[in-house]
Specification:
Blueprint: H1 15-37, E1 46-50, E2 56-58, H2 59-73, E3 78-83, E4 90-91, E5 98-106, E6 117-125, H3 135-138, E7 147-153, E8 157-162, E9 168-173, E10 178-183, E11 194-196, H4 207-218, E12 229-230, H5 236-246, E13 249-252, E14 265-266, H6 267-280, E15 284-286, E16 303-304, E17 306-309, H7 311-320
Parallel strand pairs: 3-5, 11-12, 11-13
Antiparallel strand pairs: 1-2, 3-4, 5-6, 6-7, 7-8, 8-9, 9-10, 13-17, 14-16, 15-17
Bound molecules: 1,6-di-O-phosphono-alpha-D-fructofuranose.
């Protein structure tokens, strides 16, 4: 067990950023509390609405979005937010220095089955000289992130956080309501024998991904000459947490199931923050063809293909795409 250190006091991190992260965590603690109340809090089930992505909103999607949005916009630190659950950006303080993108409740189809869900966030600074609050401000590549992380609401609530100097893991101590440092440096093993993909889409993938997965499934009888295990949580937070904890490769590749929507995961709320964490833990995050964090976004709700995790395994997968 690591020595317990109270969260987010780091001499090398800007005080305003620490304050912003602590503000954001106040909302996440509230979400954690409500999730653990579950059915007792009357928060399960769907609303009658759809979000901008055309997905039915769960009650808890809406509650989580409101909690995070309100606390960030009132903090005085945030110029604007972009949320998976909002059609457009929402302006905050005109003097705010930060832009925050977030998926308030990732994996929301897991809510009603009492399974893993999480909050994912990405923080950038307002580009120099830009006034007001515009969508254009957000259209910066993932390399511009100053911090990113996720909160996993599982048997315990955990925060994985990077400010560009490795990945730290904190665990929420419910007795004092604080996140405490439990792993100073998360590192992804370079090799793995575990993969995560939604196999039901197999026939819709590109030939490169079909061949790569076929070779994993062939195990010791194929060219990889080793057996692989498979896991799929249906919440990227849960799958990436497993990759950060014990290695692995996670992918949601391009598919032609619905030609109008070839990708599932969102660049600004999922791929960029997870890409930043994975790279900071020694792994690779790619679309199969390019580094995720170098994509120049064209709009805030943009979607991309994702292949991330253990360095050697992701590189093997990328070879198939050349
Ligand atoms: P939500 O953000 O709508 O909850 O979706 C979760 C997610 O984007 C991601 O977290 C999962 O990896 C992926 O969808 C699961 O997709 P499938 O439903 O196709 O398995």
């Amino acid at each position: 067990m690591q020595r317990f250190v109270p969260v987010l006091r780091d001499d090398n991190v800007d005080l305003e950023l620490i304050s912003l992260l602590n503000t954001l965590m106040a909302a996440c603690k509230e979400i954690s509390f409500r999730l653990h109340q579950g059915e007792l809090a009357g928060i399960l089930g769907s609303t009658l609405d759809e979000n901008i992505q055309g997905e039915t909103q769960k009650k808890l999607d809406v509650i989580s979005n409101q909690l995070i949005k309100d606390i960030l916009l009132e903090s005085g630190l945030v110029r604007a937010i972009a949320s998976e659950e909002e059609d457009t950006i929402v302006a905050g303080s005109p003097s705010g220095r930060y832009l925050v993108c977030f998926d308030p409740l990732d994996g929301s189809s897991n809510i009603d089955i009492n399974s893993l869900v999480g909050t994912i966030f990405s923080i950038m600074e307002v580009p120099e000289g830009m006034e007001g609050a515009t969508e254009e401000m957000f259209l910066q590549p993932g390399t511009a992130q100053v911090s990113a992380g996720y909160v996993l609401y599982g048997p315990s609530t955990q925060l994985a956080l990077t400010t560009g100097d490795g990945v730290k893991l904190f665990t929420l101590d419910n007795t004092i309501g604080e996140f405490l440092l439990t792993n100073e440096k998360m590192t992804i093993s370079e090799d793995t024998q575990e993969f995560a993909i939604n196999m039901s889409n197999q026939r819709f993938w590109e030939p490169a991904m079909q061949q790569y997965i076929a070779d994993l499934l062939a195990g010791t009888t194929g060219k990889r000459d080793k057996n692989f295990n498979m896991r799929w949580i249906a919440a990227m937070v849960g799958d990436v947490h497993r990759v950060l904890s014990r290695g692995g490769i996670f992918t949601y590749p391009t598919d032609n199931k619905n030609p109008a929507k070839p990708h599932k995961l969102r660049l600004m709320y999922e791929a960029n923050p997870m890409g930043f964490l994975v790279e900071q833990a020694g792994g690779i995050a790619s679309t199969g063809y390019e580094r995720i964090m170098e994509i120049e976004p064209s709009e805030i709700h943009q979607r991309v293909a994702v292949v991330l995790g253990s360095k050697n395994e992701v590189n093997t997968c990328l070879e198939y795409h050349k």
